[in-house]
Amino acid sequence: MAWKKLTASEMTGNLFDRIGKQWFLLTAGTEETGYNPMTCSWGMAGILWNKPSVTCYVRKSRHTFGFMERQDIFTVSFLPETQRKALSFCGSHSGRDGDKPAQCGLTPEALDGAVTFAEAELVFVCRKRYAADISPADLPADVRENFYGSDDAHKMYIGEITAVYQKD
What domains are defined for the chain? Predict the structure, then answer.
């Protein structure tokens, strides 16, 4: 199947289900300089600063964190349910230890200078617009206790969605 470039308002599907149930691969870096995908099940999408935008969260301990810090572009790639094992693998293994895409059978593909995967069915190409550390001390006690006991806090990245690609 071929990629069809859409505007953000033309894409189909429920983003609550895509993000929270289907999950996605956040991939930062380039094929030339190196890249790493990580599985995410947290995120938000909407309009911010009059632009379609997505917010992603990356713990500083994750291999993808360094790529997010160094690069201005990243992708959010939604894969079909048939790729659940690949998503699970990319969420439970570090790219420091090997080539995750090769190990789980994903085929890297460049879109607008960013890396996604041929197996994806929907991709957001994003330009980083803002990043900020999440301060666990400022969070409600239940969130702090359930998600930040190890002090491995997330950094929040807001990206403008510059392109949307969906498979025909």
Answer: 3-167 (2.30.110.10)
